[in-house]
Design brief:
Layout: H1 2-37, E1 47-51, E2 66-70, E3 82-86, E4 96-106, E5 112-117, E6 128-129, E7 133-141, H2 142-151, H3 154-187
Antiparallel strand pairs: 1-2, 2-7, 3-4, 3-7, 4-5, 5-6
Helix pairs in contact: 1-3, 2-3
Length: 188
């Protein structure tokens, strides 16, 4: 009887661990897919996630760091804030850029114009219009950055995505087979 209770406890703990692994994997995959496939047009409750792909903001942000930007009114942005925006000109065209605001101007009709520059860059970016803004960077996700850097390698992808998924699927199949065998034996 005691062994039966221990088996049930182990089974419940195993199920909880599988659910947690599945939720973490699913959340990570959904957020990466939203970022990649929506072309950054979608936000979740006015937040967007971006991955640093160049060294222009080093040493503050390194390649592979994952940043969270919050949509804010252009009037809330101050010099020194880090902003993410969709580039329009030159090498920035159609790329998400995250740089520091180094100056702010207003047009005659009250629209904001931002001067931005990467910390490691010598030259200032082309003017950033308020309609280009995705948001103000509010957080650098150390854990997600670490996971993203690992998962972006072939070995990391297999270790952190493929193997956990195979583990969950195979353990469920084994669990179902064991349950069927126990039911079959109890009928005999």
């Amino acid at each position: 009887m005691k062994k039966l209770k221990e088996n049930k406890v182990v089974k419940v703990i195993s199920i909880i661990i599988k659910i947690i692994i599945f939720i973490l994997l699913l959340g990570f995959i959904i957020s990466v897919c939203l970022q990649r496939f929506s072309n950054n047009k979608l936000s979740i409750m006015n937040y967007r996630m971006f991955t640093v792909i160049s060294g222009s903001m080093e040493p503050l942000y390194k390649i592979g760091d994952v940043l969270i930007a919050k949509e804010v009114e252009p009037s809330e942005i101050k010099v020194g804030d880090k902003i993410s925006y969709l580039g329009r000109a030159n090498n920035f065209a159609n790329k998400v850029v995250t740089h520091e605001v180094v100056g702010i101007d207003k047009t005659e009709d009250g629209k904001y114009l931002f001067h931005a520059k990467g910390l490691a860059n010598i030259v200032e970016d082309p003017i950033v219009y308020e309609d280009q803004l995705y948001g103000k960077v509010i957080y650098k996700c150390l854990l997600i950055s670490f996971v993203y850097k690992i998962v972006s390698t072939n070995i990391g992808f297999y270790l952190f995505i493929i193997i956990p998924v195979l583990y969950i699927v195979s353990s469920e199949i084994i669990s179902i087979m064991i349950d069927k065998e126990e039911k079959r034996r109890s009928k005999e």
